[in-house]
Amino acid sequence: xxxxxxxxxxxxxxxxxxxxxxxxxxxxxxxxxxxxxxxxxxxxxxxxxxxxxxxxxxxxxxxxxxxxxxxxxxxxxxxxxxxxxxxxxxxxxxxxxxxxxxxxxxxxxxxxxxxxxxxxxxxxxxxxxxxxxxxxxxxxxxxxxxxxxxxxxxxxxxxxxxxxxxxxxxxxxxxxxxxxxxxxxxxxxxxxxxxxxxxxxxxxxxxxxxxxxxxxxxxxxxxxxxxxxxxxxxxxxxxxxxxxxxxxxxxxxxxxxxxxxxxxxxxxxxxxxxxxxxxxxxxxxxxxxxxxxxx
Length: 295
Known about the structure:
The protein is an alpha+beta fold. It has helices at 13-27, 31-45, 54-70, 74-87, 97-113, 117-129, 134-147, 200-219, 264-275; strands at residues 7-8, 11-12, 166-174, 183-190, 235-243, 250-258, 288-290. Helices cover 46% and strands 14% of the residues. The protein has a 5-stranded mixed sheet, with helices on both faces. A two-stranded antiparallel ribbon has the order 1-2. The two termini are 40 Å apart.
């Protein structure tokens, strides 16, 4: 690799420079040109994004969403923000809360402008839960409620789901470095787990059972190659991350086929997920190796 294009945190220097240029153009009010630069960076990241810093990818998408907002291209802003939450979710316990605030606020503002007021309020609630500024929240909330014909002074909090009830959940399985698209399952999750501080043991057990339920089916989808080398996979590492504060809860499982347990590729997978916060052993993240299965 050229000495002037060394990786920093998995991101080539030329792509980092694109981001810096986009930031400069945005600050100068050249939002259209900034979109073009950020789009070039995102296209370049498609060649490296399984190794690149997730925070970097999230930031570039969030910055482009800010440009789209300034250009009043609200559907494009919604697309970038939802892409962050679905494809590059934040691991619980290792949150970049400032960036998350921006994503939810920009989603709320974009939804407001396309007259999706319930969705806008849901995003504002998440913005508030993450410690977002009331100076930003209050004016936008007032505008949304007025657009709905409601009293902005009504601070009634929506009731939580009843104990014993369930909410729909998307379980999305992704494989790093594979052309195979995500595998999506429709599941249900106990409503009492979809709270800011879910109970640890039931949450961990739920994720464990969810992974076990679909493991063999995913392994049998195709003759998987190891995620890190050309050898045939004989086992797999699962790294599920849950983002249950979305209006539609989602679990993203980074499924890593392995050539063998406890080998170099296994350790590389563990290191890769640890760097991105995906092996936080709190209530909402587990890492589980499923080895030597009979397929």
